[in-house]
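Changelog-linked ticket: magnesium ion example.
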Amino acid sequence: MSILSLKAVSKSFGALKVTDDVSFDLGSGEALGIIGPNGAGKSTLFNLITGNFPVDKGQIFLDGLDVTRESAMMRCASGIGRSFQIPQPFGRLSVYENLLVAARFGGTVPATEAPDFCMDILERTRLATLANREAGGLPLLQRKRLELARAMATRPRVILLDEIAGGLTEAECRELVDTIREIHAGGTAIIWIEHVLHALNSVVERLIVLNFGQVLMAGPPEEVMASRAVQEIYLGIEA
Amino acid sequence: MNNPCHTLSRVAATLLSLITIGALFAVPFFAPRAIVQDLFGVLTLLVLALNWNMLAGFAGLVSVGQQAFVGIGAYAMFAAVILWGLDPMVGILIGGLAATLFAIPMAFFTFRLNGAYFAIGTWVVADISRLTAGQWMALGGGTGTSLPKGTARDMFGVEAIKEVLDVSSAAAADALTYWVALTLTLLLLVASYLFLRSRMGLGLQAIRDNANAARSVGVDPVRIKVAVFIFTALGTGLCGALMFMQITRVTPDAAFSVIDWTAFVIFVVVIGGIGTLPGPIIGVAVFYCLQRLMADYGTAYLIVLGLLGIPIMLFARRGLWGTFVDRTGLEILPLRHLAPPRRCSEDVSRLAASQPANGMENRRSVTSI
Ligand SMILES: Nc1ncnc2c1ncn2[C@@H]1O[C@H](COP(=O)(O)OP(=O)(O)OP(=O)(O)O)[C@@H](O)[C@H]1O
Ligand SMILES: [Mg+2]
């Protein structure tokens, strides 16, 4: 049974249709990748799924229940965790406290277990040494790691990751892929938006290609990457 | 880790505050009545400042309608004493309760508004309550009313204090109200600290830093903000009732004065350090010192306070205390939840082992800015 389904979801900003009749299902425990050129509406799709933006049309189901009108807070409570493409840390809280908020609220981790729970995640995301540093003072790469760590701390059943591999070295990228595989192995479903295709394709089981807000195609990574349309788009933007 | 050093300064700070608190409680035993009254004024201003700081500094609710709670607390206390013949101390509790109850519908209305509109909304509600109080004929309508003669003398506890301190009834009543104000201040400080250190307090600080991200990790901003609004209404209402019990006379204009109970308070908090717990204490101390220094020049201290406030608002946004903390890194009443130290040693060794990688990371992050 699918954990998350979108049924004909649409969203416009003024005259610009950013999400155009998007439908798909995410199996529980599945890892799904989303690719597409800049401005295709990938991040917007995340904001619709998490409830940060209201949808114009269509429905979103979590565990078969209609959550289209639920707040972002409620959707987090029912198991959707996310990272932001442009990191949004709680700037005056420490790195550790950023996770603590997520764990105590979204993750409903009891007070006694929260410290160890958060430290485990900080170690897995290589942030443990920065635990007591003010999050607002972190450089961009560490902020991105914090995005991942904080999303993990909400104990999601579906985690949405938005371009967290950009700018990493080869070694760091491998570490990140390992972390995401671990999350996946733990039974969490994943939707990952990523331009670093080799990293993405080494994790996901299925790819969706978005273009001008529409699902251009969907399928296993090899198949999608081999398709003419995708090559055109990607040669177009990568060249 | 400078842990031993940390605990030592902790112990020193605790001892110092215990001595201060002890000394403050002892004031009526040795100080003249004028000082007791002065300190009463300082403490009540501090209570208002702590409440407003919690609202604006931590919850981002810039209310300019706090005089509503002062006035309602005062009027409820007068009603309790004059109309229902209750003891003024009970009246103060009723004042706090009335303000708390009033905060619920007020939140319902004003929480639909944001930012400046919220500020205006609270002020409008406060002014409507001022006008309404002016219609309460049993309590003197627009011209207000006084507590009956002898209310203070008959108040619970005054007789005993009179015996112990060997002073007049009026001085004994002053001592009693002073002690109540001091207790209220301490309770509020402890409650604020515990609240900010709690799960809700952490959520509140997350909302302050980034409301959108806070919602996405499951924090409900409205719920926490309503809780703070109601909690601070209680503190402000109790304080209003207490202040007007000491003044013994109430009028709508005095009890619902936006200048006295909100504008002043904002000033004190901004100077001391908005969004910090010790900020209001520093602000009130500065305010009191100026008032003392310039006692001979009438209201000149207000002008000096204004001249002091403007550069602070422009150049030291976090006030005297915030600037001090930024410069020295010294923090009393720290709100931080420290990460559990159990793995620190392990971390240090790992950091040492990965030194080259770290160096690379730093270089790249510099270039990426
Ligand atoms: N809040 C907003 N208001 C108006 N327009 C918006 C808003 N958010 C996004 N857009 C527009 O919607 C379009 C899609 O944006 P979106 O961020 O979803 O793209 P994306 O696929 O994530 O791109 P990228 O790969 O660059 O992150 C863009 O043209 C963008 O300018
Ligand atoms: Mg994007």
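Closing comment: Example verified and attached. Chain A touches chain B through 50 residues (CB under 8 Å). The two ends of chain A are 40 Å apart (CA to CA).
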